[in-house]
Structure to design on (410 residues):
């Protein structure tokens, strides 16, 4: 099954380090802008729409 | 020096001010002045621990670098420890690396948790640790430097530096140092280590991913029931992670408060039960948005159990109780990260 790991941009460095440390340096890591918490539902949906195309592209990447 | 020494030898200025500048430039400190970890000092510490320098104590997240006895000794020297403090620091690192402690998340969370080191046993007296007046505060070298050494190991070996891999939103001053000893002599109950299944003659270290202490001022209660209400009212705070992420938390009773509870026949288990049952956070005390979010992470069972109010921890055993401090009518509660369990290791 194809998988995709999503992180906020504030945790991107940590995510990349973990991927390298755990032996998967090429982990598909989608980065979405901070913040996520504290958004009202419409803002959260907009956030999802803004990155949806990138997520789909990453899922399909080799 | 004999043995398998692995640390790089780094030439640093002999002048102490220049040395501090160099350590700051390399990002190897906590912002306070450091003791130069010369090979001779490090060797003396390793010898005091009686362990091979290359022995791996633990791999520490988020870098997962190996904390060897030598690396821990280097940081203990820098923190200002005495050689005889090193076995306590080593035990604390072993405890923090236990899986239930969840060190990866503790190191990288936005939550303001530090690693609190609680020493229980005869070694606290042997090292001259402060378990009495101001035990959480300054003035005692063992308390101050053991806690600082643990933090330096977590930063320099584990890689949790603020703003990069340590993502704490505000952090806490407890991240400079956070170490205390149990006050056996003033406790009306068996020591914490005995409650945890160790012999009274043993010495153990317990690590807690805790916030700074929250004061419990009670100068007025003349009954256990009144004092317990003041205690549970302090625990029932909607801003703590324990309110919804569970995990254990620590109630450090001042000796006078502990004696007042014991005088009415309450043992430690009874205090744990009464505090857990009494510490309820009415739903209206939460911000509506935060309450909605909390409900999204609670299980169905938890939701059913918290229909009227949220609780602190999952059961009485999640309220850990011990005695610390001198005379006076103050106790404190240390809430935790929540997604963590305190862990204990013997000091060997």
């Amino acid at each position: 099954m194809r998988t995709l790991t999503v992180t906020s941009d504030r945790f991107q460095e940590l995510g990349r380090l973990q991927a390298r440390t755990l032996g998967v340096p090429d982990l598909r890591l989608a980065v979405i802008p901070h913040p996520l918490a504290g958004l009202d539902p419409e803002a959260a949906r907009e956030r999802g729409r803004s990155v949806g195309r990138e997520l789909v592209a990453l899922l399909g990447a080799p | 020096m004999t043995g398998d020494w692995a640390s790089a030898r780094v030439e640093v200025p002999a002048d102490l001010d220049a040395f501090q500048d160099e350590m700051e430039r390399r990002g190897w400190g906590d912002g306070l002045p450091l003791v130069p970890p010369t090979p001779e000092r490090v060797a003396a510490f390793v010898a005091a621990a009686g362990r091979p320098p290359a022995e791996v104590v633990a791999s520490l997240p988020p870098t997962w670098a190996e904390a060897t006895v030598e690396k821990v000794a280097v940081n203990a020297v820098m923190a200002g420890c005495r050689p005889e403090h090193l076995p306590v620091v080593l035990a604390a690192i072993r405890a923090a690396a236990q899986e239930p402690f969840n060190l990866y998340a503790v190191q990288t969370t936005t939550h303001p948790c530090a690693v609190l080191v609680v020493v229980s046993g005869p070694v606290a007296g042997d090292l001259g640790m402060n378990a009495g007046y101001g035990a959480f505060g300054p003035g005692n070298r063992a308390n101050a430097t053991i806690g600082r050494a643990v933090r330096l190991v977590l930063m320099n070996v584990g890689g949790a530096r603020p703003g990069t891999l340590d993502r704490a939103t505000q952090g806490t001053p407890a991240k400079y140092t956070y170490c205390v000893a149990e006050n056996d002599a003033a406790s009306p109950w068996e020591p914490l280590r005995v409650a945890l299944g160790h012999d009274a003659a043993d010495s153990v270290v317990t690590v807690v991913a805790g916030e700074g202490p929250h004061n419990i001022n009670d100068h007025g209660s003349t009954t256990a029931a009144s004092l317990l209400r003041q205690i549970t009212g302090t625990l029932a705070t909607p801003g703590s992670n324990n309110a919804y992420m569970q995990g254990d938390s620590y109630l450090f009773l001042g000796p006078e408060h502990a004696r007042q509870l014991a005088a009415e026949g309450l043992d430690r288990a009874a205090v744990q039960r009464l505090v857990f049952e009494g510490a309820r956070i009415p739903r209206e005390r939460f911000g509506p948005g935060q309450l909605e979010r909390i409900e999204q992470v609670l299980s169905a069972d938890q939701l059913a159990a918290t229909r009227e109010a949220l609780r602190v921890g999952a059961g009485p055993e999640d309220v850990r109780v011990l005695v610390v401090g001198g005379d006076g009518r103050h106790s404190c509660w240390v809430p935790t990260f929540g997604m963590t369990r305190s862990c204990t290791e013997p000091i060997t």
Summary: The CA atoms of residues 81 and 141 of chain B lie 7 Å apart. Chain B has a mean pLDDT of 96. DSSP finds 13 helices and twelve strands in chain B.
